[in-house]
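Hi team, as promised in this morning's meeting, here are the two structures we talked about. I've kept the exact order from the run log so nobody has to guess. The first one is mostly here for context; it's the second one we should focus on when we meet again. Sequence first, then the predicted structure tokens.
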Amino acid sequence: MCKRIWLMAAAIPGIPLPAQTGDGELEALKQSIAAAQSAGDNAWMLVCTALVLLMTGPGLALFYGGLVRRKNVLGTLMQSFIMMALGTVLWAVIGYSLAFGEGSSFLGDLRYFMLNGVGAEPNGDYAGTIPQQTFMLFQMMFAIITPALISGAFAERMKFSAMLLFMTLWSLVVYYPMAHMVWGKGGLLNAFSGGALPCFDFAGGTVVHITSGVSALVCALYLGKRNGYGSEPMKPHNLVLSLIGACLLWVGWFGFNAGSALGAGSLASSAFLATQLGAAAATLGWLVMEWLQAGKPSLLGGISGAVAGLVVITPAAGFVSPGAALIMGFVGGAFCYLMVVKIKARLGYDDSLDAFGIHGAGGTLGAILTGVFASHAVNSGLPEAAGLLDGNAGQVLNQTLGSLLAWGLAAAATLAILKICDLTIGLRLSPDDETAGLDLTQHGEEAYNLES
């Protein structure tokens, strides 16, 4: 027993090995410890993978589904659900390779086409303690939910066939290149792999939220307003569904952010805590603004604030202290309230479910604030002078430039893709179909059978 204790101690760096211990025994113990760590990390990552999938269906599906009018609820649910199928196939065939293959600074190569070579062995460039297949699955869930977020901007007025073509092209042209630039080996913005413009993005502020949010704004402007927008009531048909969806998003986001630690260690705990604090503080920030401006705090405002906080903290979750997470969350909640309630009304665009006001605006704010609050004391993988408060003012500039690059790519590519879809199969429902609703015209179904 004593000998085994000495062996375990010897496997820990810095503790000397007793002279009588054999090298073979020590090596066997080290392998046992490594296998246990790998098993624990893999179990954690599989749970996180399932949590991120939960964010799309049922989380986002219910959140968006409750916010539309009754005649469009099934069509809106379907837009999130279908991405669980379409996004999976695209990622397996070519997406993972383009995002995480070795290529240029902008895009990966085709070495993992059809998941060739993606198996049980870890890929040390990304996650050294879990099978590459697990890493691929985890990243797949990001590729599923990101385009689905855009659907909130064109809710109630895009044809289902056009949505499928748009999501396919957008994934190929926007998401996969952006994921490679930020997280892929040799990517332009990858701060941990020699990127020319090193940016910190722990779980997807630029990759997920800026790209989807800016694309959402372009979609809203290109398609134009819903028929009757501004003159007819377009209130959410079921806020109960939206509350359930928002709570599922909140829970699933722990997989999104804490899972991005790619292991079951202390960094995952730190990201988990930052996520909770950011969401909670943003809920209060939004509600305080709403209470002061409108006189009453609403449930819709509360859940919108929570999602805004989750967006804002995402790029920073593994890089900032609890205090910084609280500040970022509260500021983010107040800022997104102003974007959704004040700025949108002043500019007059119809971003149906506020995809830009929350994801685009919140993602940009979170990415820039990450450059302010990122700290080596929280994440030892960062430089000693990580963010502004650590003495590196230049990181704020890097974060801003990285955000602008994401804005430019998303806006230009989305406009081109919309034009292609419009010229080939048409984007928007006819006026009569829009009046009848997505459920009947696109899917031949109704969410509520009120005659039975």
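And here is the second protein, the one for discussion:
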Amino acid sequence: MLRRVLTAANAIFSGYVIARVGSLVLVPLFLRYWSASLYGEYLAMFAVVSYLTSLNIGVQSAAVNRLTQAYATGDFDEYRSVQHTALAFYVTLAAAATVLIAALAWLLPIPQWIGLRLTKPTTATLVIILLASYVLWSMPIRLISSTYQTLGNLGRSQWIANAQQIFVAFLSALVLILGGGMPAIAFLQMLSVGLTVSFVLLDVRRRFPALFPSFRGAKPSVLKELARPSILFALLIVGNLIAYEGSILLISAAMGGLAVAVFSVSKSIIDVIRQGLYGISLSLCPDFARMEALGEFEKLRKVHRMTVAATCAITLAFAASVWYEGPQIIAVWTRGRIEPDGMLLRLLLVLIAFQTPWATSSTVATATNRHKVQAIGYLFAATVGIGLVAALVHRLGTWAVPVGLTLGEAVCCYHFVIKATCQMIGESYAAFALRFWLGFAVVAAAVLAVGWIIHNLMPGPMLVRWAGMGLFTLAVATACGWMLWLTPEDRALLLPRLRPALGLSSAKAA
């Protein structure tokens, strides 16, 4: 299991890196071979069609969880009925929406509505249709590519997506250098979808012929069963939009563009931590679904405790580092163009520090389609939070966002979500909560103290201090979490597996 999780996490982190590197390489090329205005119009068209992703109401997530559990229990009839039903839904949706968007693009002056001036209307219409087709047909393709994930190989599914990103980035660069225009770039997106699905279908037919995607077993009753967890996944997306996109709109209306820029840059630092933790949680989803389906609740309880402990230790360690070094990181990153707000950054760190425990704990529920408490709780938390932001923004400015969202989650998520997970897996909630929150206070105090010492006693060089602080706070958080969050049984289970990595077995033998 550890090998699977590490492989999947590595693939997910690599995907983040590939996306960032691709942006760093392609943006200068676009601006070299196209004018900034022309590139902006292409981004505007991509932004318009990106709203079509809202048509994905969470059916894929719900279906993949069901498929993972069906494969774990050996119920291949269930597997095929869910797979065929979900695929039929997405193919029907993509086909109908493609025809509708193509008709609207040809009949309506969409280029004029979105303010295109340099791109010819006929070219813009073609580009919009190609990009819309790419967005729509990516939905059934992602479902097909998730076949490996349902078999316990999330890493392979992710690497296929990574390869698609690399393919698009490389050919886009080549097309730009050769003088290609918008239609060629947009066509590459569709070409990547076609090549990806062709490879996956051939590979699945060769390796897992019994699981080859089809429509023959599609059943309306199965789609109805998938509807409830799908809607709950959609509520999580809506909650996220309310909390963060709503906060940006409130800041913009109350304080203007400069405040939005300061907030966005500060949030970007926090998002690095959040994405890393999301990668860890996502890599565990197939195993959580498998253990729940097989009734392996003792194992599930242990993995749940270890996962919450590990993610919280990592979060608190890096939060302590950014607590002291964050303003300087922002100043260096933006080359002094953005004046960092240290208090805003620290309040955002408090938000993510308290968000990590319940978000990580809820991974068990989202992996098994039993996330009603999480979905409803987070939607209410976002609603309460954004209401507090609106009430406080004129007094606190940008600080109102982390204050409001933290209070909203404290009321709706900290207790209820973790309790629901403990009840689901048969864990004593009172014992788990007491051990965790006491340990949380001790670990937080310890890493902040270590961070303060390093910040004040290690004046430079700057990069060395940042690296040193990260390593020391992580070591302290790991040591404290090991003693405070894990039970003696957990430590006894982990220690034999850690000894080879730490070189303890060889030292003992010597």
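Starting points for discussion:
The chain has two domains: 2-212, 228-495.
Residues 504-510 have pLDDT under 50 and may be disordered.
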